Amino acid sequence: MNKILMLLVSSCLLVACNIDREPKGSMSSQRILEHPEEAIDGMTHGMYAQLKTWSDVMHRCGEYAGDNIMIRGASTDAFFEFISFNRTPQNYRLQAFWDNSYKAIIQASNIIELYGTSTDEEVKAHVGEAYFVRGFLYFYLVRAYGRPYYQAPEKNLGVPIIKSAPKDVFDKFTLPDRATVAETYAQAIEDLKQAETLLPERSGTPFYASKGAAQALLSRLYLYMSGTYEQPNTQYAQLASKYATKVISSGKYSLLNREDFMKYNQLLPESNKESIFVVRRLASEYSGYDHYYGVGGMYANIGGMGWGEMYASGKYLALLDETGRNDFRPNRTRIVDARAAFIEPVYAPEKTEVFRFIKSEESGDLNYLQLPITRSNGQIIAKEAKDSGQAESYTLTAIDANQEIYSITYKGKTYRGVIDLYIKLNRAYPMFYITKCSREGENSHLHSPVISRLGEVYLNRAEAEAKLGNYSAALTDLNIIRTRSIPGAAYASLDATNASERIDKERQLELAFQAERSYDVFRNGGSLVRRYPGAHHQREDIAPTDYRVVYFIPQNAIDAYPGKLTQNPTH
User: Fold this and answer.
1) CB atoms within 10 A of CB 540
2) pLDDT per position as a tens digit, 484-512
3) 218-241 pLDDT tens trace
4) pTM of structure
5) Which residues are registered as beta bridge partners of 395?
6) What value, to the nearest 5°, has the Cα angle with vertex 141 and ends 139 and 143?
7) Beta-bridge mates of residue 305
8) Residue 565, Cβ neighbours under 10 Å: how many?
9) Residues 6+ apart with CB under 8 A from 389
């Protein structure tokens, strides 16, 4: 039996999982068909269970392809393709993303087919959950495998729309080729609108689909369809704003205050009033080295767990420091931007004072340099040891002495940097750990991936209103998010000359490490610019029209597919 058949057969079986419902052990597909009333809880349970494995690769292919993170060096892991943009169809992580997406889609479709005509309110809510999961998965698939919506959506290919499993998987059958991007979006919208109609307005349990979760996804989906700032699609921008307003005005969710937001990663989902929908993970699902392999395990080593091989990028750190230096030193910690609370430099125990800056190599690549400093007679001298045994000295020039921001003239070029304590290196790179995907319930790398939260919804509405030319309304929403993180730093104005830059910046700062960044860049017609230290191709900008903006369909999926499955272009 080939892989797609196995997926379809297994989708008809219930998957036991632990997500705060009574486990309902596995049932045969025949039993489900004969006694569907016994199966609804377990089928819904199993559908959610698929999202746990799915969310791992979803995060990696969305976040690693952006500019919020850097990696210490090349890796043999398939995820390095996401960072390097050296795309291939033979990527086992993308295979897992594809397989788990369609397995959950078929499970959702089974629920819809079996129970879609029920008049029982509880059963209808389960059907609403199935519509929600199917709709949001089609959206996540099409944004990974289909080109940005503003680029000929009626022509470019999305993903196959499969809404039911074959009645007999042992019979000969075929499945459809990929629908267009426009058709795939339309299917996602249809499903999410059905979910909105059927789901209750509930909060406090963001690991179950709700009316607000469907509306939040619709606000983002329509935003993806709203064109670029230069050529907006006002019809879809209006719909993005409309659905964002539904969520905001529902009263079911509220923004955390600044202090609580800085602990967002530590809050359990049910205790987080800003979360709208998350993929729930439980501490009982992790043991021992499992913490190494979760999303947070690549970003930090906590309590001896995690690889800690990816760090906040120099570009992201610079954005955090734009309105004032975020000082992480233990003896003078000062967090200016609340979002810097999710960054933790790994200081060496010796507490050596250094001047750290980013310099240009002869190759044109960028790298960090940390030079020890001495203070004497009102001057600060940075010294670099030489092979000859002599040290070369550099006098620092104050830019902002209170924040200990200085400049250095090094090998004929002037650079800006900060006085700090020496940060440990992994290969050549200071380890700026990222903890936004760790420490849930203060449990090492436990993390429930965020699909939607209220902070994003405000930003969705801000962008939509800006594309409609309603800059005053956009400014209000934008500043709600900005001033929560940076009190007193509200933007004074927003107009056609600065809206795209300011809204894009706040989305990058706010939604970092939530797998949004790379898609945000390309859907608005921007190029990905990664001029900062790391093992990526620093001097190569990725244009939104580049063929590598989308991932290849996994070759194994094409080989096993019962029918034609068209691959993405290779140039």
Assistant:
1) 12
2) 999 999 999 999 999 999 999 999 999 99
3) 999 999 999 999 999 999 999 999
4) 0.93
5) 381
6) 70
7) 302
8) 20
9) none
